[in-house]
Design goal:
InterPro entries: AAA+_ATPase (IPR003593), ABC_transporter-like_ATP-bd (IPR003439), ABC_transporter-like_CS (IPR017871), ABC_transporter_ATP-binding (IPR050763), P-loop_NTPase (IPR027417). The protein is an alpha/beta fold and 337 residues long. The chain has 13 helices and 13 strands. The structure holds adenosine-5'-triphosphate.
C-alpha cells in the first residue's frame, strides 16, 4: 500500500496587488485588491514505502509548497493528501512521530547551546525514553561522524557539521518518512557527499521513504531512481531519470577528438571544414582538439558514419547529455509540451 497518496492537490495564494505611485499606495491602504497565484496545480502521485524520490523544478515551481502540504504545515486549497495513513494538516502526534521535515535554509538547533542540549529537548518533545535516546544518539553520531562535535555550541560548527547535526536532530525519533528540502544547500562538495551518503545509508538501514528537493543534480542522480518534475505548479513528469532523458532530450551528445586542434585548422585556412562541422549537429562546445555535438537520436548512426568518413578523428564517444543541461533546456524553452 502507498505510504503517500496525493490526488488533485492544489494550493492557491492570494497576492495583494498595488497600483504604482502615491495614489496607488493610498488606494491600496483603503481597499486592497487581490489576484491569485496557483503555487501548486492539480498534482497527483503515489509513493511506496522505502522509495527515494527527487522533486525537480526551477525556482518558484511549487516544490516547497508541495512539501509543506505533505507535512501538514499548510492546508491544501483543493485535493486530497494522505501520508502514512494520516491527513497531514491535522498534525496528529502519531503522524508527527512518523515524519520529519528538514529545510536546508532553516535550522532547529539553538545557536548558542551545544547541539546535545537541543537533542535532549527534542527527545523530551517526542517522548523518547533515556535508554532509546542514548542508543539512537550513539548510532546516528557514528553514522554522521559527529563524535566530538555535539558538545560544542552550534555557532562554532562548520556549515557541513551543522547540517549533519540538524539531520541528527530531525531523525532522533526515527521517522519513517523524511522530507528533505535542499538538505545540501550551500555545503561544499565533501559535505554534500557526506549528507548524500548518510541519506542513502539511512534509507537502506531503516527502509525509510525519502522525498528530496535539491538544486544539486548530483544529489538527485546519486539518491533517486524516481523523479517528479514540477513546472509552474504542475507535475509534468513522474518516472525514472533515464526516462526523463528520453522524453526531454531527443538527442545524444557526440564528443569527437580531432587529429588537429581547431586553431590549427583555422591557421590552415580550413574554414570551410569549420563551418562544415555545424552540419553534423548542434555545436555544443569547441575546445582545442575536442568538439561536442548534439545529434538527434534518429540521425545518430548516419551522423557518426559521416564524421568518421569526413574528419580526421582520434577518438569518438556518444553519451547522453548531462541531465542538468536537459532540464535547463526544458525550462528555458518555457514550454514542456
Ligand atoms: N506564502 C506565500 N504567499 C504567496 N505566494 C507564495 C507563498 N509561498 C510561496 N508562494 C509562491 O508560490 C510559488 C511556489 O513557491 P515554492 O516556494 O513552492 O517554490 P519552489 O519550487 O520551492 O522554489 P525554490 O526552488 O525557489 O525554493 C512561487 O511563485 C512563490 O512566490
Amino acid at each position: 500500500m502507498s505510504i503517500i497518496t496525493v490526488e488533485g492537490l492544489s494550493k492557491l495564494y492570494p497576492i495583494a496587488v498595488k497600483e504604482a505611485g502615491f495614489a496607488g499606495t493610498l488606494k491600496h491602504f483603503w481597499k486592497r485588491t487581490y489576484r491569485t497565484v496557483a503555487a501548486v496545480r492539480d498534482v497527483s502521485f503515489q509513493i511506496e514505502p522505502g522509495e527515494v524520490v527527487g522533486f525537480l523544478g526551477p525556482n518558484g515551481a511549487g516544490k516547497t509548497t508541495t512539501l509543506k502540504m505533505l507535512t501538514g504545515l499548510i492546508h491544501p486549497s483543493a485535493g486530497k493528501v494522505r501520508v502514512a495513513d494520516h491527513i497531514p494538516f491535522r498534525r496528529e502526534s502519531k503522524f508527527l512521530q512518523k515524519i520529519t521535515l528538514v529545510m536546508g535554509q532553516k535550522q532547529q538547533l539553538l545557536w548558542d547551546l551545544p547541539a546535545l542540549d537541543s537533542l535532549k529537548i527534542n527527545a523530551a518533545v517526542y517522548g523518547i525514553p533515556d535508554k532509546i535516546f542514548a542508543y539512537r544518539l550513539a548510532e546516528l553520531t557514528e553514522m554522521l561522524k559527529l563524535e566530538d562535535k555535539l558538545s560544542q555550541p552550534v555557532r562554532k560548527l562548520s556549515l557541513g557539521e551543522r547540517m549533519k547535526a540538524e539531520l541528527l536532530a530531525a531523525l532522533l525519533h526515527q521517522p519513517q518518512i523524511l522530507f528533505m528540502d535542499e538538505p545540501t544547500l550551500g555545503l561544499d562538495i565533501n559535505a554534500q557527499v557526506a549528507v548524500r551518503d548518510f541519506l542513502q545509508q539511512y534509507n537502506q538501514q531503516y527502509g525509510a521513504t525519502i522525498i528530496l528537493t535539491s538544486h544539486y543534480m548530483a544529489d538527485i542522480t546519486a539518491l533517486c531512481r524516481r523523479v517528479l518534475l514540477i513546472y509552474e505548479g504542475g507535475l509534468i513528469y513522474d518516472g525514472s531519470l533515464e526516462g526523463l532523458l528520453e522524453k526531454f532530450a531527443p538527442y545524444r551528445e557526440v564528443r569527437v577528438e580531432l587529429a588537429q586542434s581547431i586553431p590549427e585548422l583555422v591557421a590552415a585556412q580550413s574554414s570551410a571544414l569549420l563551418s562544415g562541422l555545424q552540419t553534423y549537429g548542434e555545436l555544443a562546445s569547441v575546445d582545442g582538439q575536442s568538439v561536442r555535438f548534439l545529434v538527434r537520436r534518429e540521425e545518430l548512426t548516419k551522423t557518426v558514419s559521416r564524421i568518421l568518413a569526413e574528419l580526421e578523428v582520434i577518438d569518438l564517444t556518444v553519451t547522453d547529455p548531462p541531465i542538468e543541461e536537459v532540464i535547463g533546456r526544458v525550462f528555458r524553452a518555457g514550454s514542456v509540451s
